[in-house]
Design a protein that fits this description.
single chain; about 190 residues; mainly alpha; two-stranded parallel ribbon
Length: about 190
């Protein structure tokens, strides 16, 4: 459907950025260096194919014409897809505005399923890593719809410090260190 189409367009942009980065003179040099070598570059992008020479280095671009049209099924639920382009757009964040607008337009309930809503904590503390902050605008909109409209908010969070499958915190840390009570307290403060 439309959301999958949007996801493909997003992937197109990501791959175009990677291909552009790796296709420069600097990118071709970086591509030859070991992955473990520290870099001072703002962006380091290298792509490898395996087995070498069997496939293209970069995937083919997605085009709508590759996907057949279909009839909408009865009972379909409308979905709006929004997301950031990461480092591709530093200043303009229209998706953030869209998220705030959608939260603010809620009439009945909002259900979140999140890894965490708070900033990354210093290990073993409830102190945010310097430069990391609570998403004040998001929390303010949530507080406003609760207070002004009586919207029910349900938030499912990962447990603080959740790390899957024996990985290290630097590989996969799902909970930044905040409990559901911490998040609720931040909403109430607004």
């Amino acid at each position: 459907g439309k959301v999958a189409h949007d996801g493909h367009l997003f992937a197109n942009e990501q791959w175009a950025f990677i291909e552009k980065s790796q296709s420069t003179a600097c990118g071709s040099i970086v591509d030859q260096l070991p992955d473990s070598m520290p870099m001072v570059l703002k962006v380091r992008v290298t792509v490898s194919e395996f087995p070498e020479g069997v496939s293209n280095t970069f995937p083919p671009m997605y085009y709508r014409s590759l996907v057949p049209d279909y009839e909408k099924l009865d009972g379909s639920v409308p979905v709006i897809s929004i997301g950031r382009y990461g480092a591709l757009s530093w200043k303009d964040r229209p998706s953030d505005d869209a998220i705030l607008a959608m939260l603010g337009s809620a009439q009945d309930n909002i259900k979140f399923s999140l890894q965490d809503l708070g900033p990354i904590c210093l290990p073993g503390t409830k102190v945010a890593v310097p430069g990391c902050v609570w998403p004040k605008e998001t929390l303010s909109v949530i507080a406003r719809v609760i207070w002004e409209k009586g919207v029910d908010i349900e938030i499912a969070l990962s447990n603080p410090g959740s790390i899957p499958g024996g990985l290290s915190p630097t590989e996969a840390l799902y909970g930044n260190g905040w409990t559901a009570v911490d998040v609720a307290s931040e909403i109430i403060k607004r």
